[in-house]
Each structure stands twice: as structure tokens, then as C-alpha cells.
Design goal:
There is one protein chain. The chain contains six helices and five strands; from the N terminus they run βαβαβαβααβα. With 159 residues, the protein is an alpha/beta fold. It has a single domain, classed as Aldolase class I (TIM Barrel). A five-stranded parallel sheet has the order 1-2-3-4-5, covered by helices on one side. Helix 3 links the parallel strand 3 and strand 4. Helix 2 packs parallel to helix 3.
Amino acid sequence: MDSVAVLGSTGSGAYLDRAERAAVVRCAVDVAGRTPVIAGVSALRTADVLAHAEDAAAAGAAALLLAPMTCQALTEDEVVGLFADASAAMDLPIVLYDNPGTTHVAMTPHTYGRIAAEAPVSAADRGWAVAECLARPVRPLPEAARAHAAAVARELGLD
């Protein structure tokens, strides 16, 4: 196993308060040993994202998993701004978590390009395809996933 991710978008992380989320990350780091822990820090407010990121870093997380969360539609500028703010405030690598089925924020390849230019991220996860540009996927990706990954790679100049 290469890493462990906790507090993603499909579990109970969104329902936990700050202390409970910090406890989950501490527990995961303790149990994972030398295996890196990627801690989900998504929240409705940027201030809460930054607080969760601080707690995750203090608990020993190796990276942060961040998805834009919303009750109302976000503009592309707001999504990019979230990643820029988090990147500027934190030293840990950020994994862009693009899970439109849960977050209701559908990031386009152009959005990926803007985020990469304004707020460097270390990896991307689209819910159904961990790391958009995997050279050897573990399972065959649906055609839509392949097309999206190719468009992201073109936007980032990786093709």
C-alpha cells in the first residue's frame, strides 16, 4: 500500500467537528505507521479548510486532500481561489479531489490548468480514477474518464 486517505467526501468527515476530524487523522497516522496519510480537509468555509489543514499537519499527515464543497454553485474563480488560499497557507502537498457526484462542482480541464498555474497541487483524484494521468490504471477506465484525463493532460501540457 502506497498511502492511506481519510476524511474524503463520501464518508462521515463532513459531519465531524474540528476536534473529531483531528482525532481521525491522528489515529490514521498512528495506525498507518510509515505509510503516508492523506487527510481530507474539505469544508464549506476556507477558514475551516485552513484550520483542518493545520490540524492534519500537526497530526503528521503527509498530504492534504481538498475538494471544493458548496451549498450554492461556485464560480471557477472561487474554486481556483480556494486552492490558491490553501496552497499559500500550507506547506503540505495538496491533492485536488474532483468528485462532482458528491461535491456538485464539476471542474473542467481549464479549471485544472488554472489551479495548476495559481496553486500548485501534487496530484488529482476524480473519484473514479485516482490520479487523472495514471500510466497503468488498476482497472479499465470508462471512456469518459479517459477523455477527461486526456483533456486535463493537454491543459497542463503533459501530453
